[in-house]
Structures are given as structure tokens and as C-alpha cells.
Amino acid sequence: MTGDDLRKHVLVWLMENHNLRPEHAWRIEVARRLVCDEMQPAWDDLAKHGATDGRHILSFVIDAAEDAHRECVRLTSKEESGRIADVADALDKLREAIARAPSPLLDGAHFIEIDGKPAAFSWRKRGAKVAQLHNPMQAICLDDLLEIAQSAIMDVAAHQPGRMPERQRDNPQLTAFVHHLADHFEKRYGGKLMASVARIATTTYGDPVTKEQIEHILRTQPQ
């Protein structure tokens, strides 16, 4: 497999996918940039490292660009953590308020319909049990739902992905793109292929990127 062969795979993809939906049309532009003459050294390098289909490379680039965009439109880690904490605090306060409310007011059951089927809603477990006793049916208890929600929000907080502080990133989207693409290459071809990543980043984002810049970016791992 040669670099020319890999480029031809992408050219075939361009012919087959020239009518992509508008929201995906940017992928056509990415593919066109990847087959420009300046990309030939990268294609040759990728072939040397075992690439067998240029469409795989195109897919890696598209995935890296989409992941970078999603990452950079998110809130910073501090803001995300703060809002998750707000939700956890609100759940705590609501559970406490329900527990402390006078029994006659929140121990009853309210009959509702869910998808056309009868069900009972109650604030506390006691109301749900009474409803099921008198008229066996699905019962939705806010006590139980809040317990599930509280467990779920703690799981979200525990698994919140770390992100590099914005002040450490001159170009956040490019930085994220480089990390994602290099990871794809390492998993598939056994190396980060920094020279190829530099050429791809240059042609994808339109700004010159050197191998030295890629090395610097990859030395700074997302936190």
C-alpha cells in the first residue's frame, strides 16, 4: 500500500459522498484538504506505518475534529463541577423538605396516566403503598426517584472527565484535535506520528503547525 493509494481511497469517498446533508458538508472540505499535494508526505508516512485504507484516516480526522469541537464548547471543569454540585445540593434540600413536611399533606396518592395507563403518584413511600394496597397499579414515589437521582448525580461527579484549563491552551480546539488524532494513530498504528499529525492539523485548520508544536502539545496532557 502506498501513500498514493491512500489518497485515492479518499478521492473515491469524495465522489461517493458529494451530496452529504448540509450539517455534514464540512466533511467534504476536510476530505478535499487531505488530498491536496501538501499532504503527500503524510500519506507516505501513514502507508509506511501500516495504513491500508485512506478512509480510515479520514474517519480519524473527522472524529478528532468533532470530539475537539464538543470538548471546547463545554463549560470549564470548574464550572461543570459547580453546576453538578448545585444539582446535588438541590436534591438534598428537596429530600429533606419532603421528609420534614406534615404527614397529612404528603402521604396521599394522586392518580395519573402514563402512556394511557393508570398509575399513582406519591411524594413519600407511605402514599405509594396505600395506593397499591387499595388499587394495585404502578406507583411512582418521588422519594425513590430522588434517591435514584442522588446516586446518579454522584456517579456523574465521580466520572466527570478532566479537562485542560483554558489558560493553558493558546488554541483550545487545535490542542484537543491534536490529542484526539494522535491517540487514534497510536492505537491503530502504534505511534503518535507527530509529523503526519502536524501536516493534517495544518491543512485541516488552515494555520501552519510544526512537528515541534505537536510535540509540545502532546507533552501537556489534559488534566
Short description:
This protein is mostly helical and 223 residues long. The protein is built from eleven helices and three strands, in the order H-H-H-H-H-H-E-E-H-E-H-H-H-H.
Percent strand: 5-15%
Mean pLDDT: 84
Oligomer: single chain
Q: State the distance separating the first and last CA atoms.
A: 38 Å
Shape: elongated
Major sheet size, sense and barrel closure: 3 strands, mixed
Q: How helical, in percent, are the residues?
A: 55-70%
Structural class: mainly alpha
- Across the major sheet, the strand order is 1-2-3
Low-pLDDT segments? 162-169
| Radius of gyration, whole Å | 27 Å
**N-to-C order of helices and strands:** HHHHHHEEHEHHHH
Tally of structural domains: 2
Total count of strands: 3
In DSSP terms (H or I, runs of 4 or more residues), the helix count works out at 11
Mind sketching the topology for me?
Layout: H1 3-16, H2 26-34, H3 40-48, H4 54-73, H5 77-100, H6 103-106, E1 109-114, E2 117-122, H7 125-134, E3 138-141, H8 142-158, H9 172-189, H10 194-205, H11 211-219
Parallel strand pairs: 2-3
Antiparallel strand pairs: 1-2
Helix pairs in contact: 1-2, 1-3, 3-10, 4-9, 5-8, 9-10, 10-11
